[in-house]
Automatic annotation (TrEMBL):
Keyword Magnesium recorded: no
Name assigned to this protein: PBZ-type domain-containing protein
Annotated GO MF terms: 3'-tyrosyl-DNA phosphodiesterase activity; double-stranded DNA binding; exonuclease activity; single-stranded DNA binding
Statement: the UniProt record of this protein carries the keyword Ribonucleoprotein: no
PBZ-type domain residues: 115-138
Organism of derivation: Glossina palpalis gambiensis
UniProt family annotation: Belongs to the tyrosyl-DNA phosphodiesterase family.
Compartments in which it is found: Nucleus
Site features described as Interaction with DNA, chain residue numbers: 633
The entry's keywords: DNA damage, DNA repair, Exonuclease, Hydrolase, Nuclease, Nucleus
Chief place where the protein resides: nucleus
Record-annotated active site: 379, 608
GO CC, any one term: nucleus
Residues involved in substrate binding: 381, 610
Length: 709
């Protein structure tokens, strides 16, 4: 047996070994994995073709992230009649694989294959994945020109000098991702050796490919390959999670953080450019492994960047993993799947990557939620996690699953306690919370009419939800009337619960709404805001009587708020309120208030969170608080159809999900404390500062049209 050659390359390159004699065998081994023989996300696809010439194709790739390590192929011949002695005896072709994401890092050099970044020269992004998906001609030109020999720095054109600091950071990122490596003399000789034998090495793209000479000992050759210092440096760099995810907190702390957050379990996401939020007790990031070992999961969301999402799963070690086994030197390598972590994604906004993800990752099932009308949106943001100890967890969020929403935007998240399985044989009617959260969640999931959710509904039915202290508030498309349990969905559901469980509230106490978008609310405040929405949210447990409407206050970022944000005007990218809608409701400005969150270090992080609350500043108490995916709109919350003689139905367009905090179920009191601890109960963690700051005469709400001006 002789080692023919050793080829080291990143796994997003496919290797095809062709023109092998018919009786030859090929052995593939993976080096540089002594610390972790199980390489997450790595796959080999070995195919033998018996045509003429005989061909063996080996494809090796990493579908999810940019390559995080290098793979070494050891080509071995056991043909006694005509042994392969060295690389001259084979034709070796390396070409980019068709993996969905990491391939884009190599395709990047062919700019016509990449979409241009929609923000062009205004792009503020600093995430490597973004630069693998989009081209930035202004940066590429600067990078290709290289460093100025006199100043040893990049020459930035005058029109870009205003953002020179950001551009230099982006160029440093390009240096790390796409280093301009020089081919040393030995590599040139190796490439010439192969090219003389009709091999194609993609000389420009594959500067990272190393080809060592033949050896009579596989062990010696492997040692030689594994000792290449430049490979080790690349491995160290590409394995660094901080190169891909900006804010990383110490692992293993989330369980303690969740325990300390009781009884509210309400968090805000960490803000990249606000370091004070990185270690705030009530800040969370996507990365943590202390909440349980995930067996399977469901992500329900509107916008999903599947590459970004799976990148997080990858770094958390939650991916399809293959175990690589050498069966016999006379046979091809054999592969056995050793772990399979299913992921179900229900999404609202279509993308080519989501449509094809199952072809690349069989453990990922992505289903677009079917909506009844073009005006309907699957807007819910919810996660379901099943753990290997048979417990599970529910998370209700306001963040889409793509990088921008977890970067410099204020997002809210409620995390349930761990929900243990019910004891075998126990009545499944047992185990619900006093808020009926489990029943309401199951009824909500049934409304999707998606068969893939049935196993999850069954699992929820067998889980103990008794520790949950909030109400599930959902919206589902359709017309809905009041039933035995009251109204099931939308703002009418909130009304039913407040009538039963909210302590009496002085009618002068305002209702404060806060969302990242505003719908068409009508020609005046009475049209829908008062007659529908406030009429529901003003309810309490006092007997029905004639009362005046409470004040309506709306928190929505002003133009000034956005212009002073971490991302400047682009910070308004999450605020899709249009000029055409704003012009139809000029009355709204009288009720608008600035976004301010100094106490939570998020005044410059534009809010994508949606919240609704009623609190008394004088008494320092909160009557209730609602976190939801639902913006202030008829589509999200529903509008009563009043043009009928029978009981009016609530017409809802969207899927939405939220949680309602009522003090009697959370703390056993009539109200939550506000601002200070009361009798050992921590204050409710509002996401914004109080008292509110109303718009001044010259203030205007931020309009999406400003970004297109």
């Amino acid at each position: 047996t002789h080692v023919v050659c050793i080829i080291s390359f990143h796994p997003c390159i496919s290797a095809s070994v062709i023109h092998l004699p018919k009786t030859s065998a090929l052995e593939v081994d993976v080096l540089n994995h002594e610390s972790s023989p199980y390489l997450p996300g790595l796959y080999f696809d070995v195919k033998k073709s018996f045509g003429k010439p005989h061909t063996t194709d080996i494809k090796c790739g990493l579908d999810l992230e940019p390559p995080l390590f290098e793979v070494t192929l050891v080509v071995v011949s056991n043909n006694a009649e005509k042994p392969l002695r060295n690389a001259r005896d084979i034709n070796l072709e390396l070409q980019p694989s068709e993996c969905m994401l990491c391939c884009s890092y190599y395709k990047r050099e062919a700019m016509q294959n990449l979409k241009s970044c929609p923000y062009a020269e205004k792009c503020y992004r600093r995430n490597p994945i973004h630069f693998g998906e989009f081209s930035h001609p202004h940066l590429d030109r600067i990078y290709e020109n290289g460093l100025d020999k006199q100043t040893n720095s990049y020459s930035i054109p005058p029109e870009l000098l205003e953002n020179s600091e950001l551009i230099l950071q982006q160029l440093k990122l390009l240096e790390k991702l796409f280093p301009k490596t020089k081919i040393n003399k030995k590599e040139e000789e190796n490439q010439k050796l192969i090219s003389d034998n009709n091999s194609t090495f993609l000389p420009e793209k594959c500067s990272k490919i190393l080809l060592s000479g033949a050896s009579t000992s596989a062990t010696a050759a492997c040692d030689k390959a594994s000792n290449e210092s430049n490979i080790r440096k690349k491995q160290k760099m590409m394995r660094n999670i901080k190169d891909y995810i900006p804010v990383i907190v110490e692992k293993g702390q989330m369980a303690k953080k969740l325990e300390a957050a009781a009884p509210y379990n309400l968090f805000l996401t960490a803000i990249t450019d606000s370091k004070s939020t990185h270690h705030e007790p009530l800040s969370v990031t996507f990365q943590d492994d202390s909440l349980g070992e995930i067996e399977s999961s469901v992500q329900i969301n509107f916008m999903v960047d599947i590459g970004w999402l799976l990148g997080h799963y990858y770094f958390a070690g939650i991916l399809l993993v293959y175990r690589i086994q050498l069966v016999n030197v006379r046979k091809l390598i054999a592969f056995k799947s050793c772990r399979h972590t299913p992921l179900l994604v229900l999404y609202g906004d279509e993308s080519p990557e989501l449509k094809s993800i199952s072809q690349h990752k069989p453990n990922v099932t992505a289903i677009k939620v079917t909506m009844p009308t073009p005006f309907s949106t699957s807007h819910t943001k919810m996660m379901l996690f099943a753990y290997k100890d048979c417990s599970m967890r529910v998370i209700v969020s306001t963040a889409n699953l793509y990088e921008d929403d977890w970067h410099n935007r204020t997002q809210g998240m409620w995390i349930s306690p761990r929900l243990a399985p019910l004891t075998e044989g126990v009545d499944t009617n047992a185990g619900d919370s006093i808020t009926n959260f489990r029943q309401d969640l199951m009824l909500y999931l049934v409304e999707y009419k998606i068969s893939k959710l049935q196993p999850w509904i069954a699992r929820i039915r067998k889980a103990d939800f008794s520790s949950i202290n909030v109400f599930f508030i959902g919206s589902v498309p359709g017309g809905h009337r009041e039933g035995p349990r009251g109204h099931p969905w939308g703002h009418a559901r909130v009304s039913s619960l407040l009538q039963k469980h909210c302590a009496p509230v002085d009618e002068k106490i305002p209702i404060v709404c806060q969302s990242s978008s505003i719908g068409s609310l009508g020609a005046n405040i009475q049209t829908w805001v008062q007659h529908d929405f406030l009429n529901s949210l003003r309810q309490d447990s006092m007997p029905l009587r004639v009362r005046q409407f409470p004040l309506f206050k709306m928190i929505y970022p002003s133009f000034g708020n956005v212009s002073r944000s971490h991302d400047g005007m682009l910070g308004g990218g999450c605020l899709p309120y249009s000029k055409s809608t704003n012009d139809k409701q000029p009355w709204l400005k009288l009720h608008l208030h600035q976004w301010s969150s100094k106490m939570r270090h998020r005044s410059q992080a534009m809010p994508h969170i949606k919240s609704y609350a009623r609190y008394d500043l004088e008494a320092q108490c909160v009557y209730w608080f609602l976190l939801s995916s639902a913006n202030l709109s008829k589509a999200a919350w529903g509008a009563f159809n009043k043009n009928v003689n029978i009981q009016p139905s609530l017409r809802i367009c969207n899927y939405e999900a939220g949680v309602l905090f009522l003090p009697r179920f959370v703390t056993g009191e009539d109200t939550f404390p506000l601002g200070v601890v009361r009798d050992g109960v921590p204050p409710f963690p509002l996401p914004y500062d109080v008292p509110l700051t109303p718009y001044g005469p010259d203030d205007t709400p931020f309009l999406m049209d400003y970004l297109h001006a």
